Amino acid sequence: MISIRQATEDDLAGILQVEQSWPEGGRASEDKFIARLKKFPQGFFLACIPNESGIERIIATVTAMPLHYNPSAMMEFKSWDAVTQNGYIPTFNLNDCNAIYIVSGVIDSEYRGGNIFSPMILSEVALAESLGKRYVLAGAVIPGYKKFYDAITEISAFDYCRRRRGKHLVDPLLSMYEAIGFSVPDESHVIAEYYPDDASRNFAALVVRDLLKPL
Questions:
Q1: Quick check: 114 pLDDT over 90?
Q2: Is the domain of 73 the same as that of 159?
Q3: Record's superkingdom (predicted)?
Q4: Are 151 and 66 within one domain?
């Protein structure tokens, strides 16, 4: 039985264990998680299960921060580092923010493929709603892009983000986001060199859920 709850500093050992499932060069250090917990603890969620002894085990994490998002002014979203202050998250005035931005999300490699992604992201959606914010955003890698680009056609990153196979988006991560109400609004939301990820050719798609729009 998976439960989702807010993280505390007492969870750091388990959080860092989950982080080992992320590629080594992109793993967050302990001090970055501490900064996120101190600056915006309500946006730091954990997915947990009991182990064989009944003791809780952390199997996924998601962190977030408030920011102001203007769909027609994307110059502030030039890279993940710029948006998140290299993962430490910048100081903010919550009243000046209209969005929750998902900083990171990691699922333990043993538990990928299960129903963990959606409830974790939707925890951030519920938080945004409770705070009266209009948007939830994430800078999503597009992990199928390089393989598609190399094997099929030299397709642009934006066109790839719109490509479908039947009813579903070709990219697996974008497809999961779309299933819970997120979309890539336009070409300006597909950003080169946003986050280093070879499978995405270093592109990322800024996916957005507008809470004023019905699903």
A1: no
A2: no
A3: Bacteria
A4: no
Domain count, the chain: 2
**Mean local confidence (pLDDT), 141-155:** 90
Non-local (6+) Cβ contacts of 62 within 8 A are 44, 45, 102, 104, 105, 106, 120, 121, 123, 124
User: Would you tell me how many other CB atoms lie within 10 Å of the CB of residue 130?
Assistant: 9
Q: Are 19 and 99 in the same domain?
A: yes
170 near 155, Cβ under 8 Å? no
pLDDT in tens, 184-200: 999 999 999 999 999 99
- Amino acid 164: pLDDT: 95
CA triplet 154, 156, 160: central angle to 5 degrees?
Answer: 100
Q: Which residue has the tokens 């914010």?
A: 133
Q: What is the rounded distance in angstroms from the CA atom of residue 146 to the CA atom of residue 40?
A: 34
Specify the pTM. Answer: 0.95
Find the domain containing 100 and state its range.
1-133
The CA distance from 59 to 139, in Å, is 22
For residues 94 and 195, state if they share a domain: no
| Cα–Cα distances in angstroms (integers) from residue 8 to residues 3, 18, 56, 94, 203, in the given order | 15, 15, 14, 21, 32
